[in-house]
Each structure stands twice: as C-alpha cells, then as structure tokens.
Design brief:
- With 96 residues, the chain is an alpha+beta fold.
- It has one domain.
- The chain has four helices and four strands; from the N terminus they run αβββααβα.
- Strands 1-4 form a two-stranded antiparallel ribbon. It has a two-stranded antiparallel sheet with strand order 2-3.
Length: 96
C-alpha cells in the first residue's frame, strides 16, 4: 500500500493522495501529541505494532466508510489532480 500510495503521487498534477498508509493517526504520549502516517514505514515496525495499527484502522470511522471495501478485502487509494478544464491533460487523467 505504501508503494502504491507513493506511485500515485508521481501521477502528473497530483495534489492529494489518500490511503490507509498515509492516513493521519494521532495519539498521545504523556503530554505530547503525536501525529504520523498510520501505516507507513511498516518494514521498520514489529508485528505487535503493525497489529495495533491495523486495529486502529479497523476501528477508525473515516476509514471504515471511505477507504476500504465493506468486507475489508481491499483498501482504496484516492487521488485528486489539478489540471485546466478541457485540457489534454484533464482528458488523459479521466482515463486513469
């Protein structure tokens, strides 16, 4: 998912890419508020941390409604591009 999310950022004129890997996860440690991508850099995480973050994803209302299939078979990667209306670029983006 991380590689796909990064690849979508390479699409010309991409201005926003949303996926479970870059979903902003917020939590606190003592008095500090930590904000980080939910499932990025998973190769650096142990199995316990990955499972904890998967549980966060399973219980996050924004992800349960918008970023995954009904039965959790797959997650979506959504992106938004900015191109001039009617341009050749815009017509090409419609085919992606």
């Amino acid at each position: 998912m991380e590689q796909l999310t990064e690849a979508v950022w390479q699409i010309p004129f991409s201005i926003r890419v949303d996926s479970v890997s870059n979903f902003q996860h917020t939590y606190s440690i003592d008095d500090d508020l930590i904000v980080e991508d939910l499932l990025s850099q998973t190769l650096d995480m142990d199995a316990v941390e990955i499972e904890r973050r998967i549980q966060v994803a399973l219980n996050e209302p924004l992800l349960t409604k918008a970023a995954r299939s009904r039965f959790w078979e797959f997650f979506f990667v959504a992106f938004r591009c900015s191109a001039e209306r009617g341009s050749k670029t815009q017509r090409g983006l419609r085919r992606i």
